[in-house]
Design goal:
The chain has about 400 residues and is α+β, with helices and mostly antiparallel strands. The chain contains ten helices and 14 strands.
Length: about 400
């Protein structure tokens, strides 16, 4: 047994009692702090539950409900019965319009051709071949521009103002060679020619005494059509031919279009293969139809009947009843612009005013200028587009709503 003096024992007991009191006080303080934290959290939750819902005050001319989804409109209208909705013209697909209203591409008489240049893509960027294709028979010629240049014909001439312009002489010589070749080989005459409004193709005219453009005497029997709109389907045959010939040679073959003698042999052999290959559109080879005028006239009669059917469909749809000043929504085919790979918000995303009809197309003045290319300052305000790429806005939502819906396949 350990003997502890009485004073020492009393001191030990008092210290133990004091430590217990401190522990109890600390526990009570901790419990009190936890209760305060719980009360603060509970108070914050009460405040959050009591926050009133804030909605914007609608002005007299505020925005109508813009979303066109039927499900969204029905759910929103159930909660807000007095809401007004935008009566927006529905967007539509392009392929059904093309298949129903696009006019067939043919010529009403034999001897009609399309003309364009192939550009060398190897770095020089010069025009290497003049391409001509018969619109009906699909028979084609490719004339090597380099050979005519080597014969002494000039490519460029310097004007008085110091600007370099394309000399029309070399293209004119090639075209005269084509006329002689067509007459000597097949006994055909050239009656019509289609091209874009490139400066190289302005050799058909000359200035008279009054400084006006008139046809040269040797071309007076030829009807010349020029179309430079980037949004119409002009020069379809020659553009398709160039794509076909480029694709036929395979990838990494742009060097074959440089116009050299070695490459020109391959190109002329390619032209021979094309002219003697069965074509699905004419159901024979281009050479067979080009040497058979009766077959070409039979094809013209067939396509004329198809054209009349398309015209009747356009008339029944009311596409011939657009008037000057009418508000329209238009679709622009941007394949020939700098915005070729631009993703549109919708197919018909431009608004404008109808101006007039022109060669089966519609001339429209856009509300906002359309940036035709990503670089430069080339801005377009008045454009020419296919007729079926116009939706009349003022008729939509009135008496002609059903007619326009059926015309443009709007559900």
């Amino acid at each position: 047994m350990i003997d502890i003096p009485g004073g020492t024992w009393l001191a030990v007991a008092e210290s133990e009692t004091q430590r217990q009191r401190q522990r109890q006080e600390a526990q009570r303080q901790h419990h009190h702090e936890e209760e305060e934290d719980d009360e603060e959290e509970h108070h914050e939750e009460e405040e959050q539950r009591n926050i009133p819902s804030v909605e914007p005050i609608r002005a007299m001319n505020s925005l109508d409900y813009p979303f066109k989804s039927k499900i969204k409109q029905s759910k929103y209208k159930a909660a807000h019965p007095n809401t007004s909705f935008v009566d927006r013209i529905p967007d539509k697909k392009i392929k059904p319009l093309k298949s129903k209203y696009m006019r067939p591409n043919f010529a009403p008489q034999p001897g009609s051709w399309e003309m364009d240049y192939i550009v060398d893509r190897t770095g020089s960027g010069h025009q290497s071949y003049l391409v001509l294709i018969n619109i009906n028979t699909r028979y084609c010629y490719l004339f090597n521009r380099t050979k005519f240049r080597e014969r002494g014909h000039r490519d460029y001439s310097k004007s008085r103002k110091g600007r370099w312009v394309v000399d029309k002489t070399i293209t004119e010589v090639i075209f005269d060679t084509f006329i002689d070749e067509e007459h000597n080989r097949f006994g055909h005459s050239v009656n019509a020619i289609k091209s874009d409004d490139d400066v190289s193709f302005k050799f058909f005219t000359t200035k008279n005494d009054r400084n006006k453009d008139v046809m040269k005497p040797k071309y007076k029997r030829i009807t010349v059509f020029k179309q430079n709109s980037m949004f119409t389907y002009h020069n379809k045959q020659v553009d398709a031919l160039i794509r076909t010939l480029r694709n036929a040679l395979g990838p990494n073959t742009d060097y074959l279009w440089d116009g050299s003698d070695k490459s020109d042999k391959i190109i002329q052999e390619l032209v021979y293969y094309y002219n003697n290959t069965w074509h699905s559109a004419i159901n024979m080879t281009p050479t067979e139809m080009h040497t058979d005028v009766d077959a070409e006239w039979s094809y013209i009669r067939k396509m004329t009947e198809l054209l009349n059917n398309v015209k009747y469909a356009q008339m029944n749809a009311g596409l011939d009843r657009l008037y000057e000043g009418q508000r329209v929504m238009v679709h622009l085919e941007q394949g020939k612009t700098g915005l070729k790979y631009h993703q549109n918000r919708r197919m018909f995303e431009h608004e404008g005013t109808f101006v007039k009809y022109n060669n089966g197309n519609a001339v429209v003045k856009l509300d906002k200028t359309f940036l035709a290319r990503l670089t430069g300052n080339n801005r377009i305000n008045t454009i020419e587009i296919p007729l079926f790429f116009c939706i009349p806005m003022d008729d939509f939502g009135t008496n002609n709503k059903k007619r326009i819906k059926s015309t443009f396949n709007i559900a």
